[in-house]
């Protein structure tokens, strides 16, 4: 008889395409995932994955088991809910660190208020999550998503900076400026490519770990920075300047989801794109 838990681990490995990512998602060690898969292969007498240095790839038998396993696990969850009226539905939520979550309070509240049995917990990686508020560029193919917001970037300077009175600037204005580095930026390579194409070199005076800190460093006069519009705040000591580009650099913030209880799907479907 096949147990349910190894099927959970198999499904995670199938969807992530990686033993490491599956272990992170399931909050267990990699050997536990490997053992569960080998146990299933032994019980069924088939090979479920082809293994290589690039990761794992499902065999024909693996694809067949995935469909059956997901159906079985969903039925198992529905049985538990049907016969345990007060059972809690735990949802794992990932929030990308450089996203201003204050903009999405209404969405999180709508999810939490769908049912008194829903419990949200924050996880460290998207692989561990059923829900994620994340930059679309970082999203794996295992998720569906709704676009919440699309935003551009602005240059933030101190109010006594030489550029503070400008309403917009071009990349040429970057020349000779001292910047606070934003190493976690998903569009960093796009900005660097444009700077290189225009033969503009910039100097970094330090690194920030989040966008509130980066503005504090700008406020201290340690440099300027490029940040997403959602982190602009009312501050008399700072100025935010639009950056004029032939092809604007933007990022799309999405609500990503997978394997949600049916009670939540209606809430997700009602969300308005590009708020």
UniProtKB/TrEMBL annotation:
<dbReference type="InterPro" id="IPR005119">
    <property type="entry name" value="LysR_subst-bd"/>
</dbReference>
<dbReference type="GO" id="GO:0003677">
    <property type="term" value="F:DNA binding"/>
</dbReference>
<keyword id="KW-0804">Transcription</keyword>
<comment type="similarity">
    <text>Belongs to the LysR transcriptional regulatory family.</text>
</comment>
<feature type="domain" description="HTH lysR-type">
    <location>
        <begin position="2"/>
        <end position="59"/>
    </location>
</feature>
<keyword id="KW-0238">DNA-binding</keyword>
<dbReference type="GO" id="GO:0003700">
    <property type="term" value="F:DNA-binding transcription factor activity"/>
</dbReference>
<dbReference type="InterPro" id="IPR036388">
    <property type="entry name" value="WH-like_DNA-bd_sf"/>
</dbReference>
<dbReference type="Pfam" id="PF03466">
    <property type="entry name" value="LysR_substrate"/>
</dbReference>
<keyword id="KW-0805">Transcription regulation</keyword>
<dbReference type="InterPro" id="IPR036390">
    <property type="entry name" value="WH_DNA-bd_sf"/>
</dbReference>
<protein>
    <submittedName>
        <fullName>Transcriptional regulator, LysR family</fullName>
    </submittedName>
</protein>
<dbReference type="Pfam" id="PF00126">
    <property type="entry name" value="HTH_1"/>
</dbReference>
<dbReference type="InterPro" id="IPR000847">
    <property type="entry name" value="LysR_HTH_N"/>
</dbReference>
């Amino acid at each position: 008889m096949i147990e349910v838990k190894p099927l959970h681990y198999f499904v995670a490995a199938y969807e992530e395409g990686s033993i490491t990512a599956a272990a992170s998602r399931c909050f267990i060690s990699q050997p536990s995932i490997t053992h569960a898969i080998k146990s299933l292969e032994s019980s069924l007498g088939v090979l479920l994955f082809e293994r290589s240095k690039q990761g794992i790839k499902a065999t024909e038998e693996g694809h067949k088991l995935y469909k059956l396993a997901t159906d079985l696990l969903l039925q198992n969850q529905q049985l538990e809910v049907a016969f345990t009226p007060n059972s809690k539905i735990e949802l794992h939520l990932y929030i990308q660190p450089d996203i201003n979550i204050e903009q999405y309070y209404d969405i999180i509240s709508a999810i939490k208020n769908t049912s008194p049995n829903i419990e949200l917990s924050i996880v460290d990686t998207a692989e561990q999550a059923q829900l994620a508020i994340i930059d679309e560029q970082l999203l794996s193919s295992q998720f569906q998503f709704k676009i919440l917001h699309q935003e551009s970037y602005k240059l933030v300077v101190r109010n006594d900076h030489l550029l503070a009175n400008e309403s917009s600037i071009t990349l040429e204005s970057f020349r000779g400026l001292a910047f606070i580095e934003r190493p976690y930026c998903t569009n960093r390579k796009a900005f660097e490519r444009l700077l290189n194409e225009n033969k503009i070199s910039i100097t970094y005076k330090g690194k920030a770990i989040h966008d509130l800190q980066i503005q504090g460093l700008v406020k201290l006069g340690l440099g300027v920075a490029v940040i997403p519009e959602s982190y602009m705040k009312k501050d008399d000591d700072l100025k935010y300047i639009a950056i004029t580009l032939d092809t604007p650099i933007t990022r799309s913030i999405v609500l990503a989801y997978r394997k949600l209880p049916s009670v939540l799907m209606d809430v997700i479907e009602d969300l308005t794109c590009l708020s």
